[in-house]
Amino acid sequence: QAQLVESGGGLVRPGGALRLSCVGSGRTFGERAMAWFRQSPGKEREFLAGLSWSGAITAYADSVKDRFTVSRDNDKNTMYLFMADLNPEDTADYFCAASSRNRNNIPRTSGNYDSWGQGTQVTVSS
């Protein structure tokens, strides 16, 4: 399993933007489909965005597709999530995940991912 570490969370005002990063270890980082999820208290972990091993194929949840952009740099073993026009409903812990069983397919359920980061907290508040 890859080790993943998220960063970039914090407090942001409504309408603001943040960029999250997910740095992975291991030689197979660039071979895996990856995704971003989020979870807030009392709610299930929610798929936000994902991309194929090369980054050529992307997928987004309808709730964020016009505001969030996922990308990756395999040379840096890093995946990004740029989030714009944030609102209080975006407040949650954000997690990155990697799937050793998928390269071009981007699953939307958390059970398909076998490596997870520890999460980074995003709070949107005035």
Keywords, separated by commas or semicolons:
seven-stranded mixed beta sheet; 126 residues; 0% helix; 11 strands; globular; mainly beta
State the order of secondary-structure elements, H for helix, E for strand.
EEEEEEEEEEE
Largest sheet: 7 strands, mixed
What's the rounded overall pLDDT mean? Answer: 95
Our estimate of the beta-strand percent is over 45%
Q: How many individual β-strands?
A: 11
* Low-pLDDT regions: none
Report the helical percentage. Answer: under 10%
What is the general shape? globular
**Discrete helix count:** 0
Structural class: mainly beta
Radius of gyration: 13 Å
Alpha carbon gap, first and last residue:
39 Å
Question: Could you write a compact summary of the structure shown?
Answer:
This protein is an all-beta fold. It has strands at 4-7, 10-12, 18-24, 33-39, 46-51, 58-60, 68-73, 78-83, 92-99, 115-116, 120-124. The chain is 0% helix and 45% strand.
